[in-house]
Amino acid sequence: MVRTFPAPWRFIETENGYCILDATGQALAYVFADEPNDQGEVVGLTWDDAWRVARVISTVPEVLKLSGHQARQLVDEESERK
After folding, report:
1. Residue 58 located in a structural domain
2. pLDDT for the residue numbered 47
3. What is the pLDDT of residue 79?
4. How large is the greatest C-alpha to C-alpha distance in the chain, in angstroms?
5. Using CA atoms, how far apart are residues 50 and 45, in angstroms rounded to an integer?
6. Which residue range is the domain that position 30 belongs to?
7. Tens of pLDDT along 19-74?
8. Terminal CA-to-CA distance of the chain, rounded, Å?
9. Which residue from 1, 39, 44, 71 has the fewest beta carbons nearer than 10 Å?
10. How are strands ordered across the β-sheet holding 27-32?
11. What pLDDT does 53 receive?
12. At 79, which helix (H) or strand (E)?
C-alpha cells in the first residue's frame, strides 16, 4: 500500500524549530534550530536558516507539479522572501 501525503503542506513553529505537516496534520519532517552558545556561536541551523529549510520543504507538492523552469523560479522566489 502506497501512502500519500496530501497537499497543501504547511509548517509550524515548535519549541525547537519547525514541523512540516501535510493537509491531514500528519508530521512529515522536523527542522531543528539552534540558539547561540555562550561564545555566540550557532552549531546547527539558525532560526532563520531553519525557517528557510522548512519553507522549501513545505513547497514540495507544488514544485512537483511544475516544469523544471517553473520549479527553479518558485524556489528562487521563496528563498528571496525572507
Report:
1. yes
2. 95
3. 67
4. 50
5. 6
6. 10-80
7. 999 999 999 999 999 988 889 888 899 999 999 999 999 999 988 887 667 767 77
8. 39
9. 1
10. 10-14, 17-21, 27-32
11. 97
12. helix 68-80
Residue 67 one-letter amino acid:
S
Give the count of beta carbons closer than 10 Å to the beta carbon of residue 4.
8
Q: Is residue 55 part of a domain?
A: yes
Contacts of 60 (CB under 8 A, 6+ apart): 9
The reported pLDDT for the residue numbered 77 is: 74
Name the grid cell of 10.
Answer: 504547511
The total domain count for the chain is 1
**Structural domain contains residue 74:** yes
Grid cell listed for 11: 509548517
Q: Residue 72 domain-assigned?
A: yes
Q: Which of 49, 75, 51 is nearest to 64 (CA)?
A: 75
